[in-house]
Amino acid sequence: MQGTPPSATWLKPPSADAAVVIVSSATLPPYMNHQLHRAIDDWDQVAHLVVQQSGAFMQDWLQAGSNPDEPTLAATCQASQLLSCVAKGCFLLDVEVGPVPSLTWLGSVRGHPLRLVRLGKEASSHAAMDQQVEEILALTRTLAKSVLQERCGL
Fold first, then answer.
1. CATH annotation of 8-152
2. pLDDT, tens only, 11-32
3. Which of 13, 63, 103, 119 is the most buried (most CB within 10 A)?
4. What does the pLDDT read at residue 124?
């Protein structure tokens, strides 16, 4: 895969304190990705992974896992490499715009718990998109609180 553009990139990489990774597709309106980034920029417990090519991203993972005699292949797929720096109990929050979720398989890559936010129809105004961003952030807060309470033994 040398020379091939990455199928996914960190918009905001995870810190050691990350409790939630927001995973969004490039099909999410740029305005929403921007608003999410602004909202979580100083929030150490939240990271953001943007998938540009969901089909290629999944195909890479499937090919790596299809040969049980080569366990090193699974570790070298892009999804595994990207998620290797994410703590085991960290939630993946899959934000989907389309009717069919295309990224829910990411929870299987390294065993992270995954929650799905299905936005349904694409919002047509900034106000509607802001409302959807708030819904994502509300769930992010709930998940982050849950992970932090578990880590602190509360």
1. 3.40.50
2. 999 999 899 999 999 888 999 9
3. 103
4. 83
104 vs 46: CA distance, rounded Å: 18
pTM of the entire predicted model? 0.89
Amino acid at 122: E
Please spell the DSSP secondary structure of 85-135, one letter per residue: TS-TTPEEEEEE-SSS-SSTTHHHHH---EEEEE--SPP-SHHHHHHHHHH
Q: What is the DSSP code string of 24-93?
A: EETTS-HHHHHHHHHHHTT-TTEEEEEES-HHHHHHHHHHHHT-TT-HHHHHHSHHHHHHTTS-TTPEEE
| Residues pairing with 95 in the sheet | 24, 117
Nearest to 14, CA basis, from 90, 115, 95: 90
